[in-house]
Amino acid sequence: MERTPSKTWRIAVLTSGAGRGSNLQALYDYFKSHSLPLKIAFATASNKDAPVVQLCAKLSIPCYILSPKKDKDFEIRLLKLCQKEKIDLIALAGFMNLLSSSFLEEVKIPVLNIHPALLPKYGGKGMYGMRVHNAVFDSGDKVSGVTVHLVDSEYDNGPILAQLKVDISDCKNAEDIAAKVLELEHQIYAPTIYKFLSEH
Ligand code: GRF
Asked: In this structure, which residue's CA is closest to atom 10 in ligand 1?
């Protein structure tokens, strides 16, 4: 699939079943408030009760229920959707599964992920959500942050595109760290996506 030479880049946002959808909301808000030529053409959630489903309804974004665990044709369906919707970039936002190297080759568009720590630290299989922030808190690190990276077929492994750091020396627990990092996530993802598309 070739990238669409259209003026408005079309993004697909992949989430899971449990995610709040706060990054999806932040992307939507940033693209809109900055009048950027970017549109969230669709999102996915892994079940119909996911909070993201309601959020998408509120924002008038089509949301497809696609479960990487339950749908054995998950990647085929996703590939077809991306082709039909002429998607230019896939943004993972709380998507918990690996995409296969054959999918990544076939879809021929960049796939980006946001991770709530400073990769390559605190990444990899099983490092998601509060597990990440608990590990950072237990380590005694004084700085944490957020990473946006290109996705390959290993967890949290592709080339890093952008990072933001935050002082966490005043954080009393992992929840305090999570709150600080989430603020950064909402600042970094949309401009990084825009910059990446503008430069490639
Ligand atoms: C974020 O912390 C993101 O870094 C991680 O999953 C979480 C999704 O949060 N990959 P939300 O659903 O966007 O609020």
From this structure: 94
